[in-house]
Each structure stands twice: as C-alpha cells, then as structure tokens.
Amino acid sequence: MDRQQPGAVRVHPERRHLHRFGHPDDGTHHAGDDRSDDQPDPGPDGSAVPGTVRVLWLKPTDVAYDQRYPDGIAAVVREAQRYYKQELGKTFALNNTVVEVVNGEHDWNWYITTNCTGSDHYWCVVSNMQQELMRRFGIRNPDSRWLCVGEISAEEPNQSGGGASPGWVLLSGHDADGAAGINGAMNRWYGGMVHELGHGFGLPDSTSTDGTPMSASFYDYPNTHFGQAQKNAILAGPYGSFLS
Predict the structure, then answer these.
(1) Closest CA to 17 of 170, 151, 172, 144
(2) What is the pTM of this model?
(3) How would you list the strands of the sheet with 9-10, edge to edge?
(4) 9 in any annotated domain
(5) Where is the composition biased (Basic and acidic residues) (predicted)?
(6) Given a cut of 90, is residue 141 above it in pLDDT?
(7) Which H helix or E strand runs over 35?
(8) Is the bond leading into 142 cis (omega within 30 degrees of zero)?
(9) How many domains, the chain?
(10) Can you say whether the dihedral through the CA atoms of 141, 195, 55, 120 is positive or negative?
(11) Using CA atoms, how far apart are residues 32 and 137, in angstroms rounded to an integer?
(12) Is residue 233 included in any domain, yes or no?
C-alpha cells in the first residue's frame, strides 16, 4: 500500500503541521543523565509488566512537558483496548502507568536529521526513537515480553512518518499531537492506533479498502470491523497470548 522499510508497515498519515510546544522548564532532569552506556535503565517507572502493551512517549530535550500528551495517548490506547474487546471478545492489558514518559537524550532537530540517508526522511525520527528506547531500557525488536508502542513529539513536516511491525508501533509527532487533541478529530487517531496495533499483532495491510481497520477504512472509525480471518490471525499470531 505504501513504501515500506524492511520489516515495518508504513503508516498512512494525514500530513499536518506539527505542533511544537514550548521549551523545557529549568532544572528538567533527562532520564539517562547518570546512566552508564553499558547498563540499560530499568525504565521510566520500572513497572512494565510482561505480557502487556507497553506505551512510551519520548519528549526531546527542547520540548516542554505537557500533560495532554501522556493523558491523550493513554486515552487513544484505551479506546483501542476497548475496540479489540468488542471485535475479538478478548483484549490486551496495559500497565498501571499506561504511558511511560521518557525524557529524550537529544533535541527535536537531532531526532529528525540524524541517521537520515538520501532525500527520504520518512523513517528517521521514529527509528532514532526506537533505537534510543531499546538501548536505554533493554528492549528488543521484537520483544516477547511486551508489544511496544513508541510515540515521539518530533517530526519533519511533510517528511517524517511512522508505522508498525510485529512487536512494535512507532509513531511521530502528528500522531502524538492528534492524541493530545490538537490535530483534528479523535476518531482519526483511534482508528490509526487500532490499525497500527493490528500490525503489531502480526497483521498485514489489506489489499483494498475493504471495511476493515487494516485498510484505509480505519479513517471511518468506528465504522470498521476486523474480518474473521484477521481475528484468527491475531489470536494465532506472535502476540495472541497477550489477549485475554
């Protein structure tokens, strides 16, 4: 459906201007400042339970903390949790701290420009986020302990994007803004999360707009439903045991 990075399915973003907010308060502590490079951090709160969908929001050093982001991302993931229960009769568990807030090691510009090759900067920002999260918190790709969702408040306008593959959902600034309620109707972001988690659970894109959330029909959320074959594939897939 879209060009893909090996092992990942590209998201279908509506290109919008990224809302970049403020500057950090003085004295902000950046997680990992006292970390030895060969010793991963335990995690922002150390309480992620195996067998759950683990959600992390990475905030660059020059982006101010804004409670709308963890609250909004949590609400979007909870709506996806409700939808999966509706569709499959089972759903995934979240952690007590639904969204772990990660103070990034770099500024906004670093994430959108580093490790980019050629003129296509689509994957740079989310790949940089993923690599930092994996290194700092000892997460693998994929990781049998968690299905991970990473969102970052950084994006190169009309360039950056995101996507998903089994075990990981990677989303850039427009998705974070949408979850926070400052980038259009919420159904767009609910449907997008359902779609990307479908990839995280092992589903491919649909080959046509077929009424399922694995096609562009996710833009019509909540008027979209998994087909039976998709339900079977989720339950039999690499993270099917996470559903109860």
Answers:
(1) 172
(2) 0.85
(3) 9-10, 163-165, 168-171, 146-152, 52-59, 94-103
(4) no
(5) 22-38
(6) yes
(7) none
(8) yes
(9) 1
(10) positive
(11) 10
(12) yes
Which CATH number is 67's domain given? 3.40.390.10
Q: Has residue 31 been placed in a domain?
A: no
The strand pair at 94-103 and 163-165 is best described as: unpaired
Give yes or no for residue 33 having a pLDDT over 50: no
Domain-located, residue 177: yes
Which of 226-235's residues contact partners 24+ apart within 8 Å by CB, and which partners? 226/87, 226/88, 226/198, 230/198, 230/203, 231/87, 231/88, 233/202, 233/203, 234/88, 234/198, 234/201, 234/202, 234/203, 235/88, 235/90
- Give the pLDDT confidence of 99-126 residue by residue, as tens digits: 999 999 999 999 999 998 878 889 999 9
170 three-state secondary structure:
strand
The pairing of beta strand 52-59 with beta strand 146-152: parallel
Report residue 153 as tokens.
């408040």
Residue 137 belongs to domain spanning:
52-238
Cα–Cα distance measured from residue 28 to residue 103, given in angstroms and rounded to the nearest whole number: 9
The per-residue DSSP string of 46-110 comes to S-PPTTEEEEEEEE-TTS---THHHHHHHHHHHHHHHHHHHHHS----EEEEEEEEEE-SS-HHH
